[in-house]
Design brief:
The chain has 3 helices and 5 strands; from the N terminus they run αααβββββ. The protein has a 5-stranded mixed barrel. Helices cover about 45% and strands about 25% of the residues. It is an alpha+beta fold. Among the domains are: about 50 residues; about 70 residues, Beta Barrel (OB fold (Dihydrolipoamide Acetyltransferase, E2P)), CATH 2.40.50.140.
């Protein structure tokens, strides 16, 4: 008897459930389409590959198919544009080289093309004959930590008349090697030691 009641309930609900089933299925399909696809399931490599595929498909869909002649014409135009750009760069480089060679260099360079370095420093020793030892102090900002880093280097300079003494501020100019350590010459004494 209980089985008959259950069968009757099933028979009564079945037609109504069948009527609602297509609507529910359609709503479920829409919800599944709107829901974002789980990205974590795919590996990063697979995600990149899918993104490339979508990008290529979108680009292919946005432009019409071209004939081989059209593609070749497009390549030729790009090739001509690149050649014109390279030609212009070469002409500009030749102009700069010609201006630099004739002495009309637009940017003054400290070193190169025969220009000698010039440094200012303090004499720390004048014991040797016709030679002074000069300390060059430099201060620069550290690239990462932005703190001022102070450093110094010493160099030996030729002083023909033994003019400079300890504590003097001098200007020295780069020169040919004069001895094992001397590659600089004294230009002038800027300030005398007190």
């Amino acid at each position: 008897m209980a089985d008959e009641e259950q069968n009757e309930n099933v028979e009564e609900t079945t037609p109504a459930a069948e009527a609602e089933a297509p609507e529910a299925a359609a709503e479920a399909a829409e919800a599944a389409a709107e829901a974002p696809t789980p990205v974590a399931a795919a590996s990063p490599k697979q995600q990149r590959r899918d993104a490339r595929t979508k990008k290529v498909a979108a680009a292919a869909g946005s432009r019409a198919q071209r004939s081989p002649e059209e593609r070749q014409a497009e390549r030729d135009a790009a090739r001509k544009a690149n050649a014109a750009r390279r030609r212009g760069a070469r002409l500009r480089a030749r102009g700069r080289a010609k201006a630099a060679h004739s002495g009309e260099a637009t940017l003054p360079r400290e070193h190169g093309e025969g220009r000698q370095k010039v440094r200012q420093g303090v004499v720390v020793s004048d014991k040797a004959d016709k030679t002074i030892t000069v300390r060059i102090d430099t201060a620069r900002q550290h690239r990462r930590y932005h703190k001022i880093v102070r450093s110094s280097t010493t160099l030996h300079a030729h002083d023909e008349s033994n003019d400079a003494h300890v504590g003097d501020t001098v200007i020295v100019r780069e020169s040919r090697p004069l001895s094992r350590l001397k590659r600089w010459r004294l230009v002038e004494v800027v300030e005398r030691a007190r």
